[in-house]
Amino acid sequence: MAPSRQKVLIIDDDPTHLEIYGLLVKQTGYEPVQALVRFAGAEIPRDPGIGLVLLDYRLNSVRNSVEIAREIQTMYPFAPIVLLSDVWGLPSDIASYVTAFVRKGETEKLLRTLGLLLPLDGCGG
Question: Which terminus of the chain has fewer CB atoms gathered within 10 Å of its CB, N or C?
């Protein structure tokens, strides 16, 4: 059996986006862990293997992305947070919580960012 892969937690309120980013993450050699946060909110999965978090900025949820980013920093203090959004620049209200910002649809930039922040070396990927 192959060694376990680096895990990427993907947090979004759109199941289609979760599926798309999950497939992309998996094809890149990481193991996706998905969290659908919608209207009433959702629990953030507790998994000691999380190495990086992809967080959607605009969430239709009781909790906004800033609140979720705070929770992520507490749960996974060493996991970088990559903010995904369709806005043109990194929003100032969440800037202090994130390591990188990638506009949705910028697949190549996302792949480069994943590779820089969560290397696959030594994981059999």
Answer: N
